[in-house]
Every structure is written in C-alpha cells, then in structure tokens.
C-alpha cells in the first residue's frame, strides 16, 4: 500500500534520464508540468529496472489454461547479474510457472530464486538441500513493469531477500499474477488483484511447487521452508498460513507476516471519517489501485469507481508509461479527493464481495505464525493489525486450535522501519524453524518491544532508502 503524495517520494524526482517516453499526450487532465513530472518519474523508474526488454516476461508458448497450478513453463537457470545490484556471493535464477487466481483460473506468472553462497547449516541440511524462505513482496505497483525480479535491487534489497540469502537461505519470490507477465498468449490482459492476500498466497504456493520442480536436488520435495512477507506480502504470508490448512505443502515450518493488511475496504471507509490523518490520506490515495484490483477479480466491474479525471490519469498517463509506485504518485498529482474516485464506490456489490474474498486473518491457520507490526505504521496501521490478531486469537481459544500465534509490536516504528527493528526477532525465528527447533506451544502470545532513542532514528515510509544504482559509465558513483 502506498501514497501518491509527492512529499513521500522526493526520490522520484531525482536522476531523471534523457529518455522520454512518447505516447501519453492524449491525457486531457495532466498538464505540461504534470507530464514533465511523470516522464521524469518514469524515466528514473526505468533506470531501476535490470532490463527494459521484457521478453523474458512474454507468456510462454506452452502455457495452457488446462495445466495444473505449479507447472513449470520456463527456467532461466542462471540470471545475468551485471545489470542488478546483488551482493557478491549470491546468484539468481528466474522461472515462469502457472498459478491460479481466486476463481481457480490458471495463469502464467514469474518468480526469482536468489541463491546463497552456501546453505545455512541445519541438522538435516545434507539430506534436505537448501533451506528456503518463500518471500512475498509488498506493493510495487499494479502493472507489467512492477515485477521485482526485474528490479535491480529486487525491491526489498537488504531489508529481506539479500539478507536472507546472505544468511544461507534460498529465497523463492513470486512477482505475483499481473506483474511481469501481463497477458495470456492470446493477448488477454491479466490484472493484478492488489491487496488480495489469498490470491497472492496462491502465487507464493505455486512458486514454491514450481521452483522445486526446476531445481529438485537443491530445493527438495520435503525441504524445510518458511513463508514471509511485508505489507501486501504480509497479507499474502498470513493467507498462506490459512491455505496450509486445506492445501498443505510439504516442508512448511511456519509463516512471518509483517504489517499485513487485513480488511482494506473497512480501513478505507474509516479513512473518510479521519481525512486529516496521514494514514487516511494514504489509503484514500490508493483508491485507483483498489478499483483496478476489484476489476482484476471481477472484470465486469470494469473500473466503475473511477471518475472521468482518474480514468484519464489511469488509462492515458499511468498505463501507457507502464508506471509503478514512483510514477503512480506523480500521475495523480493535484487530483482532488473528489476527483479520485466516485463517492461510496465501495458500496457496490462486487466491491463488498472483493472485501470478503481478499481478507487475511480471522480464519483457521496452520502455524506457527509470527505477526509483526510497528506502532507508528501509517500505511498498515497497528490498530488495523491488532484487532485481526485479537479476533484470530479468540477463535483459536474458543475453537481449541492446536496452533501458535505470536504478535510482536515495535514502538514508534513506521511501515518499512518495522522490518529493520524486528530483524533480530524474525531472522532468529526463521533459522530456528528451518533448523527444527520446536516453536512455542499452542496459543497466542503478545509482546511490545520498546525501542531505544526512537525520536532520533531515521524513519522512512519508502523502501529505497539505502541502495543506489549506477551504470558502468558512472561507476565512480559506487565509491561514495
Ligand atoms: C499542482 O497545483 C499547484 C497549485 O495550483 C500548482 O502550483 C502546481 O504546479 C501543480 N502541480 C502540477 C504537477 O500540476
Ligand atoms: C514448457 O517448455 C519448457 C521448455 O521447453 C519445458 O522445460 C517445460 O517443461 C514445458 N512445460 C510444460 C508444462 O509443458
Ligand atoms: C476513524 O478511524 C477509526 C479507526 O482508526 C475508526 O474507528 C473510526 O470509525 C473512524 N471515524 C469515522 C468517523 O469513520
Ligand atoms: C470469477 O468468477 C466470478 C463469479 O462467477 C466472475 O464474475 C468473474 O468474472 C470471474 N473472474 C475471472 C477473472 O474469471
Ligand atoms: C469496460 O468499459 C470500456 C469502456 O467504458 C469498454 O470499452 C470495455 O469493453 C468494457 N470492458 C468490459 C470487460 O466490460
């Protein structure tokens, strides 16, 4: 989930290259300055892509909607890392595989696998191959260009995938349906059902199944793995734990959900009663992406919630540029709240149904489950996560589930900082699960970590706070 307020995205205005994409002049509402800004943002975004050539993400010719989910379509055993900024020692592969949407429809999707230099040593490691973390990323955007497997820093860089692989775990990371591979072989568009935890959980499960088929000696059929995600991916990880109840995958050792959205449409409704709050402005700003998500799940809904202004910005500015979060924030500059979405659009029956289908939490799950939340999170507020934990825990108690859920809150931490603040917890937790250390006994445990000097630490609402990228003719930039 993300803002489109320029104030949170100063970085989108930096480093604008000379290459200007043509073809968005048909917008009737984005004026000269608006166009200049989106072009700058889009050009900077393209500089952050490992490749501008999306041929890897063309739907493979042997895709068929009759294939079961988790089928392997393409394997790139070794990804050329010269255009990525990936730590030494690590290597990467990419796969294209089949996933299934909420209707069970089979779709092609992509994923990367980040390989460690050497595997984490666990008691069973010799027999079981590489311990794995199935990583579910947060919002990158909702269009083709927003596949983290084509981001030079894999979007979450040292916050998650680099760190996990450097610590000896193979990281299997889906891009999610609709990102990267955007069409079926017949040209039909694949929408991205943003913030639909159960759909992204399908993408995560199927990526694990397909990655094991691609590398059976490294990722063995029963090898230990933990599912983990943040933000949109936190919802995916929680939904993944729920999916394990009916569709277990061998080797599952638990899930970590950081800052998971749970009931997004309710959160949006609350926002309209709290419009002066930053958290409210952020989710209000996210409405076009939510409207696109409802359309991805129910094509007949067909963007009904967009106004003529937001329709113009979506289809004549953002889509032609294939823009992701940075460009998204710029494409909607100066669109007022009234112009952004039709009033009460979320009362439509399709949206109500989407709200029900997209929910993570408040359902039976297979644990152990670790849920983490920052008390100052303005994107997925702590007071949306805690009630979902409490309700789930009350179900656990009353229905005598033999499962464990641990909820840890981090004082004063915002959306991305909560990942860093909690690293000491989740990294050890994951290694314990992968090593076969028993998890805490069934039941719920809640705790708060009070951070030291939280007034004096740097807080960022954005992911890209530490990694720059430079081309070889600007390699002097690396020496800073
Ligand atoms: C947004 O509106 C403000 C106030 O009217 C104006 O100064 C600014 O140039 C506008 N920005 C864009 C990108 O159009
Ligand atoms: C699709 O083709 C690739 C490459 O030829 C092959 O490795 C893969 O197994 C095929 N998948 C299916 C489901 O036919
Ligand atoms: C404001 O948001 C809170 C949740 O933070 C919610 O409980 C409340 O109902 C909202 N106010 C209105 C008037 O919607
Ligand atoms: C999924 O099923 C629903 C209900 O039958 C239908 O309205 C919707 O269009 C389907 N979505 C897709 C992507 O096929
Ligand atoms: C959605 O609406 C557009 C124009 O308003 C129309 O051209 C298109 O055919 C519609 N698509 C569906 C799936 O109803």
Automatic annotation (TrEMBL):
Domain of life: Eukaryota
One Pfam family cited in the UniProt record for this chain: Abhydrolase_6
Keyword Signal applies: yes
Cited InterPro entries: AB_hydrolase_1, AB_hydrolase_fold, Lipase_secreted
Annotated GO MF terms: triacylglycerol lipase activity
Keyword Cell wall biogenesis/degradation: no
Keywords of the record: Signal
Signal peptide start and end residues: 1-23
GO terms, biological process: lipid catabolic process
AB hydrolase-1 domain mapped to chain residues: 137-381
Transmembrane segments: none
Designated name of the protein: AB hydrolase-1 domain-containing protein
Lineage of source species: Eukaryota, Fungi, Dikarya, Ascomycota, Pezizomycotina
